[in-house]
Every structure is written in C-alpha cells, then in structure tokens.
Amino acid sequence: MNDIRIVFMGTPEFAVASLQQIIESGYRVSGVVTVPDKPAGRGLKIRQSAVKQYALEHGITVLQPEKLNDPLFLAELKELEANLFVVVAFRKLPEMVWSMPALGCFNLHASLLPQYRGAAPINHAVINGETVTGVTTFFINEGIDTGKIILRSEITVGPDETAGELHDRLKETGAELVVKTIENIAANKCFPIDQPLIGEPLRTAPRIFREQCFISWNKTAHEVHNHIRGLSPYPGAITFLTGENTSREVKVLRSALTGEITGTDPGHAKIVSDNRLFVGCGDQYIEIITIQPAGKKAMLAGEFLRGLRTSGIIFKTPPEAV
Predict the structure, then answer these.
(1) What is the pTM (predicted TM-score) of this model?
(2) Position 168 pLDDT exceeds 90
(3) Backbone angles phi, psi at 136, to 5 degrees
(4) Which residue in 132, 146, 214, 302 has a CA-CA distance of 20 to 30 Å to 70?
C-alpha cells in the first residue's frame, strides 16, 4: 500500500464515492485532476466540481487544466510522482497522460463492458429496459471504453427504478470495485483480459440531447415507462400539455404501468379518482406519478391536476421528436 501513489481524475458526485473510499482505505492520493471552475445556474455563480470540493476539504492538491496536453499541466502532473492513475467520470485522456504512470491508468465505467460504451451508460441501460447492469474497471487505451477489463460487478435493475436511483447504487458498487482493483494492482494480482466478443449487437451510450428527451406516446407503455425512468431525474422526459389553445412543456419524472388497454389515441389522458392521471400509449395506459411543469418544482400528479383549468388533457410529441 505504501508503494502506491495515486492521482485521481474525476468531476461529478458519482466520482466522489470512489475518491472517498480510496482515501478511507488508506491509499495515498498525491493529487486530483478535475475540470476548471465554471459559471452555472441562473446567477452564473462560479461552481467547483464535486471532486474538487471533496479534495480541498481533505487537503489534496488539485489540478484543473483547460487542455490535457498543456505542457505546464503535464509538468505539474509528473511532479506529483504518482505511479497509478484512477479515472472516474472524467474525459478522454491523451496517450501522453494515460501512459505516464508506471502501474497504469484505469477507468471505472458504469456498465458491463463492452455494452454501453459512451457518456451516458446508466440512462441508456434503463431506457432500453435492462434488468442487469453493473460497473467495470479497465485499463485506458487509445479507444473510448475499449481497454482491457480488470474487474466487473453486476447488479440487478428494478422494473420501476429510475436512472437517478440506479446511479446512486452504482456509485457505491463502483467505489468498492475501484478499491478492489487498486488492491489487486498493489498485490501484483491484476490479470486484465480483452473485452469479450459477444454475439448480440453492441449497444452504445452516447450523450443525451434535448431532442432525445421527448416522449413518443405512440410507443408501447413499457417503452414509454422505460424512457421516463431512464431520464429521471435529469434531464427529464419532455412532453407538451395542450388544451384551451395553449401548449405547455412539462417533464414526466416518474410513471407506473397500469396494464389497462387504451381505447383512445396515444397522448390522450383521463383522470381517475380525481387525483390520478393516466395517459394513453400505443397499447396501454401509463400512470403519471410525478410531473414538473416548466419553471416549477416537481409535484405529484394529484397536485398538478388541482392546478389545471381544463378537463380535456392531451399530451403531444413535438414534430422534431417524431
């Protein structure tokens, strides 16, 4: 353990769990690399990454390069004299960085590689209705999430679990796997293998943009339900409430399957027992549990319904999403 000197690279709260477990396990973290501070929110206040905040609280040196090939950054990185780099939820590294440490540079990815390579593996796994997912540690190479696998850990996905809930479970499972990976490297018991060739098609996990958030009500209820929970709580599944010559954007953050066959067009809604909101999909009704009108807080469907002035509710998909 005393021979391991780590530089940790990461940005969001997902990465903090791994950094915390590394430190609590007694490993020496020589420094942290994270993104530069940037303005965020309505007030455009300068915001530090979650990883930077944690590092500063624990007296760890922080490097925040604009460019990872900057000669000054590379010099500062070498001065940390680390022999292992650990990467969790960061950005693609140039070879001059990932090839630097003597013991290698490994990444934690929130999927069972080779499936769901890309920036949003948790979201896409839920959207696609996966019942099993997990985390993988692998040595970084010149590709994107293509390096040799060190360890993997599987977890089941609940049928109503949101991406946010799965994120919170995976960050803890991933942190445990990161420490186990470091232990194996330190004990010279690390035996990485090539990513397996599988017969089924590889599913990718690219970054999600706004146009991919729109709900297509003509799809099956299961597909719509998975789409909603796969985008919850962020960025949120988007639809448009129409009625009385108005159209308002809303986000649906939680839903439930009803099993009730629809007798109406997709997107047409009905109110059940005065406080339950059902919306027709391509085959069955889906119940909206939590909804967030644009510019307002998230609320339960019953509260949302009390604020409506119309009884005829139709949810529409914008043309650009069809």
Answers:
(1) 0.94
(2) yes
(3) -140, 135
(4) 146
